[in-house]
Amino acid sequence: MKCLHEGGLSDRIHLIGPVCSVYSDVVYHTELTSLFYTIVSGSRYLQHETQENKLKREASAGELVKMAESRVHNQFKLTTKNNVRANVGEEVTLPFHLSPDTSAVATTIRWFKGTECIYLYKNGQVTERSGYEGRVSLITQELKRGNVSLRLRDFSWSDRGVYICQVIHGEQKEEAAVGLWNRGEAVQVLASGSLYLQCETHKDKLKREASAGELELKMFKEMMNQLEDSNHRLGEKDKLLGEKDKLLEERDKQLEERDKQLEERDKLLEERDKLLEGKENELKERRQEVEERRQEVEERRNPELPFKHGEMSDTGSILAVRRRNSKDLPPFMGGETSDTDPTLPLRRTNSMELPPPSMGGESSSPDSPVSPK
């Protein structure tokens, strides 16, 4: 077998061809294998992805949306006049508007007088510098239409000057200036709004930013105070709720005690009902006994009632039957019977009456003795 460096080019081609084909097959299979494992690992990655990573992905998507919105807002411009005039004591409006009409509700609006920030609107919160409290305000109903004009009440001689409006949204910052002067006052050319910004120095801009930072710090402190007040109120409400819960617990306990008392009363009433039932049964029995005794008394008081089957006397007369096992005496039946005639009237036994009066005369019997004369 010849070596590569000894043979010609044709011999080298014959040797390199099969090697290249084998290498290409290996690379192809390697690429398929890596693609397969990539797909498998991707599905497993989503299955094992943590909640924190998901939140990070959502936050990143939100940032992209905000960037897209800021690009849309990059189209607006801030328009105004060069100068506005008013009399002392009047209410004056410094007109500023976003062009084209763009909502300014979600923007940050700063108002400056020269290098001093006098009014700040941010996240729906408003802060005013001392000396301007209650005197400056935005037309909040017009913010959706892009109207960011400032109202100034009780215009005074000290309010004269150049006012700058600054609107910030995302990375965009637009500002414009207007001069506020008394009517009939001569104004220098440099006092107009457009020229003032062109001639403003970098030092003045830094002063304005520092003043705006002071007002934002004031806003932050006010918000913290509001939060403390709200937390204090919430704490008081929690205390009140705790007291109410205690009262409710006490009431629940009282209700439970009342329920127990009612159960005990129900038991007592049941026992009384049973006693009443027993007494009613006793009364019924007593009524029956009384009725029986009443019938006996009626039988004794009415001798004409038919006699019950009784015993025979020694002479053969039927005597009234006395109730057996009774301790009461039989009704009055008259005296003893005659020795000779049971049909003769009876004489009351042990009677206290006198004997019948003497009839006088002789007896009908011939053998009877004659009464003495």
From TrEMBL:
<keyword id="KW-0325">Glycoprotein</keyword>
<protein>
    <recommendedName>
        <fullName>Ig-like domain-containing protein</fullName>
    </recommendedName>
</protein>
<feature type="compositionally biased region" description="Basic and acidic residues">
    <location>
        <begin position="284"/>
        <end position="312"/>
    </location>
</feature>
<dbReference type="GO" id="GO:0009897">
    <property type="term" value="C:external side of plasma membrane"/>
</dbReference>
<dbReference type="InterPro" id="IPR003006">
    <property type="entry name" value="Ig/MHC_CS"/>
</dbReference>
<dbReference type="InterPro" id="IPR003599">
    <property type="entry name" value="Ig_sub"/>
</dbReference>
<dbReference type="InterPro" id="IPR013106">
    <property type="entry name" value="Ig_V-set"/>
</dbReference>
<dbReference type="GO" id="GO:0005102">
    <property type="term" value="F:signaling receptor binding"/>
</dbReference>
<keyword id="KW-0732">Signal</keyword>
<feature type="domain" description="Ig-like">
    <location>
        <begin position="74"/>
        <end position="179"/>
    </location>
</feature>
<keyword id="KW-0393">Immunoglobulin domain</keyword>
<dbReference type="InterPro" id="IPR050504">
    <property type="entry name" value="IgSF_BTN/MOG"/>
</dbReference>
<feature type="region of interest" description="Disordered">
    <location>
        <begin position="284"/>
        <end position="373"/>
    </location>
</feature>
<dbReference type="InterPro" id="IPR036179">
    <property type="entry name" value="Ig-like_dom_sf"/>
</dbReference>
<dbReference type="InterPro" id="IPR007110">
    <property type="entry name" value="Ig-like_dom"/>
</dbReference>
<feature type="compositionally biased region" description="Low complexity">
    <location>
        <begin position="359"/>
        <end position="373"/>
    </location>
</feature>
<dbReference type="GO" id="GO:0001817">
    <property type="term" value="P:regulation of cytokine production"/>
</dbReference>
<keyword id="KW-0472">Membrane</keyword>
<keyword id="KW-1015">Disulfide bond</keyword>
<dbReference type="GO" id="GO:0050852">
    <property type="term" value="P:T cell receptor signaling pathway"/>
</dbReference>
<dbReference type="GO" id="GO:1903037">
    <property type="term" value="P:regulation of leukocyte cell-cell adhesion"/>
</dbReference>
<dbReference type="Pfam" id="PF07686">
    <property type="entry name" value="V-set"/>
</dbReference>
<dbReference type="InterPro" id="IPR013783">
    <property type="entry name" value="Ig-like_fold"/>
</dbReference>
<dbReference type="GO" id="GO:0050863">
    <property type="term" value="P:regulation of T cell activation"/>
</dbReference>
